[in-house]
Each structure stands twice: as structure tokens, then as C-alpha cells.
Amino acid sequence: MVTLPFRDRDDAGRQLAAALLHYRGSHPVVLAIPRGAVPIGQVVADALGGDLDVVLVRKLGAPGNPEFAIGAVDERGRVLLNEYAAQAGADDAYVQQVAARELALIRERRARYRPGRPAMALAGRTVIVIDDGLATGATMAAALQVIRAQEPARLVCAVPVAARDSLQRVSGLADEVVCLAAPHPFHAVGVHYLDFTAVSDEEVIALLAGQVTPAATASVPGSKPVRIPADRVVLEGDLVTPSPSQGLVIFVHGSGSSRHSSRNRYVASVLNQRGFSTLLFDLLTAQEDRDRAARFDILQLARRLDAALQWVQQEPTLRDLPCGLFGASTGAAAALMVASARPGEIGAVVSRGGRPDLTGASGLSQVRAPTLLIVGGADLQVLALNRAAQASMPHVAELTIVPGATHLFEEPGALEEVAVIAADWFTRWL
Description:
430 residues; alpha/beta; Rossmann fold; eight-stranded mixed β-sheet; five-stranded parallel β-sheet; 16 strands
């Protein structure tokens, strides 16, 4: 019996693989929709003895609301629109523009994920298409249609969780649909995972290549798990201390994320290579994180960060290191709030796609630590908020824009640029 929420994508993958065991021995092709479904696909492919690859289909976002899907485009440039696309404001010119942009990203990803290797031949094989969940089902529908045209012997749609109307939408496009749970009402895929941390391009590449991902801290020299007491709870963390160390950077994750954030871990790995110790820790317990309001309680998040700083000051190997903060999304607001309260203790702050505005103008005016605000050039709303926040900061505060990047910095090379910029900032000020 499936119990929601899933712990993480690995947990979902193991349960999904159990429901697909009747395909073991058929040497199926497991096609994951990147990026979130790739860790699940890897678990399923291993369990069934299949081949893992990606199916590159991108959803088309509505005008002014890119998270709301009006359709999708596949690797061949075929556009599939939902029946409500026009009502959402998408005319022909808009569809052509956004489809061209997403198709360019698909082609870049194919070259990035599988350099020199074309997509697998699917004719005559059992093909299992996996996503981490279905909200509208637009991307999965497009994937199934383009795969069906390649004449597989059997086509299977497999997801851990889905909206009921989305299951109806894809049911006629596959020979079998396997879904572990279809809760009603259905709000969002991520609600049904305790850890729904975004998957990075680096992790996808590593999984497809059969390598251990760079985010696996257990393989990092000088790493150890830590436990931080705070507000009558204990927060789990991962500490990496290269030797020698020129400073400590504490990561403050955003809403709905955790210490397992693949993006933060990638940035941390770059900092480790530059000689910085890093601490990634959970701001909330698993039970607390189920309360959406707790994710946006900036005061509580700041208290948790303050507790981590108190813990650091009691650690002989850490207390004398200059300290910096790296905040993402809502975590950036908590980082700046703590920096304003500890003017002599925080040496530098970096915000990645952050919400410094949630700190408040009064708090921002008191931040003395040199602060770098990194924002994607295509993340227009957050960019405007960061510009306004910068104007409220009378001390060193710089804004760096990563051209073409969206909020999650998922474009090829964007996260790498963030990591280098952050490492340079901490090297300069710590």
C-alpha cells in the first residue's frame, strides 16, 4: 500500500519499480523526463535490468505564468497544445516564440546529457516513460505521442503520483498506465514528496553515465553528518571541512528544499575545491516542512540559522574561521536577517535567486556584510525585487545577472557560472 508523501525520489522510484516488476526480463528502455524523473528512472532501470535514457519534451508555459502549461514541444519540434491554450492568452505568435526557445533548450540538453550519442532506437522494444508526477499531463502526453510514432512493441506510462484528469488524458496514449497514487484534490506534484529538491544537469549527466553524482557528500573527503539543536528540535546537517580551510560558508536553502538541494550541493562542491568548509543543514524538520506556512516563516528560518551559528561557535575546528552565508530563495531573506543582527560575525553574503525583499527595508539597511545578489536575466519578477532590495542596502551590495537564466538556473552552464561567481565573492571578502 502506498502512503503519501514519498520520502524523496529514490523512495518513489523503489515503489514504482515494485509495481513494474512484471517487466523484469524484458530488457525495457526506461525513458525519464528530465530533470526530476531521472533519479526515479535510474532506480527503475536498475531494478528491471533495463536501459536508461531521457525523452526530451518541454512544456510550454502560459503568457505571464510560465509554470502553467499550455502545451509541450518534443525533440522533433512537434507542438502539442492544450485545449485551453488560447484562453490562457497564447496566440500563434506567442506559441511559435516559446516553442522555438524550448526546442533550442532541448537540443542543447541532448548534446549536454548524451554528447556524441543519439537517442536510443525504440522500435520493437518495451518502453517505459517515467515522470516524477503528473499535474496537467501535457509533457507526458507529448512524450508518449512522439515515442508511439517510433513503433515500440509496448508503451508504458509510469508515475508515482498524478492528478486524476491527467491520468485520463494519457490513458489512451499508452498500452499500460501505472500510477501509485491519484489523490483528490490534486494541488502540485511537489506536495507529495517530503524532499522534492530540484535535480541539476550535473546529476542527470552523472546518472546517465552510470557515475556517482558529485552531490553525494558521503564521497567527499572531510565530510561528516552533524546534528544541530534548535528550538527544542534537532536539525540534520552535512559538514565538509577541507584541509586547510580558508573559511566557512553556511548554506540556507529555500522553501520546499533541504540540505539535499542538488544546486546548493553543487555550489558547495566548487567552494570545497577552492578551500572553503561548507555546512548544509535542514532549516525545518520533516514534520514542520509539511506545513507550507512554515516554509515562508522568515523569522523562524532566521532563528534556525542563528542556532546553527551558535553551534558553529562551539566547534573548535570551525569557530575561528571567517564565516559567510549562501542563501537561496526564501533562505536568502533569512541569511540577510541574521547578517543584519550579527554585523561583526558574518563576513560575506551571497544570494542565489533570492528574495531579499522578505527581509524588510529596515533589516536590509542594517546589513554590513558585503552582499552579492545573483539573479537570472530571465527571472524578471525576482530581478525587480532584487534591484529594489539593493537600493535599500547602504553598504556593499552588488547585483550580478546571469544572462538568459531563469529562476532555478537550469539552463546549460548557468549553475556553473553561479558557483564560480559565488566562490570569487567569498574568496574576496573572507
